[in-house]
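Checklist before submission:
- one chain only
- standard amino acids only
- sequence pasted in full

Submission:
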Amino acid sequence: MVTTADSSSALRTVLLALTVAIVGLVVGSILTLVAALAAFAVGLTQPTVLIVLAVVFTQGVAFGGVALVFLRRSGLGASFVPVRVPTLRDLLWVVGGYVLAFAAVAVGASLVLGTGADPASNQVSQLGMENPEVLLVLIPLSFLLVGPGEELLFRGVVQGLLRRVFGPVVGVTLASAIFAAIHWFALTGGAGARLATIGILFFPSMVFGGVYERTGNIAVPALIHGAYNATLFAAFYGALRFGEMPAILA
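Returned file contents:
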């Protein structure tokens, strides 16, 4: 039997998890804007410079910083997000999770696109089509900042909070939905197209969350996420330079 107190606690946890995610995004947007204005002021307008600033100040400073500040201020502490040097077992999970992430996005794309929905374009994809060298910069950044920063905030903190109240299955599912939904602001196009892309992104997000749940080591989904993104950027670059771009990368 679910009591009113239980329902209230669950709602507060969902709102708290959403708030942490939104604060991370807002702080990242503000810091990126300030950094971009400073760069423009000194004549640094190259796309590669701007994308590096965006990744550093959003995934690096904002996502990582908000996660760490929250853990400290809430009293949860750094131990709330377990991390260790990956063991052989962890590395096997990295390889398996990497394969599963691409299988998941293929399934998600098949299901969503099978409804006749057209996915939205990603702002990074559009920038990459205009300036392919940006994609090469994003490959190492995926490992250094994107994977670690996003996983620390969305799996370590958001999923961790939800898991405590809802258990692993619902916790992973809710956190994956929040993570996918946050991408709304990085997409272009109508609401239907954005929702279609968010639906596709939900599937690999479930893999990241599930692997974190199984390994208890945030480094594992961070590596998978970094490798996943880096592969997409490398494939996108190769497609732009040498052949036709797959629809899933657009």
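Reviewer check: Strands lie at 121-122, 187-188.
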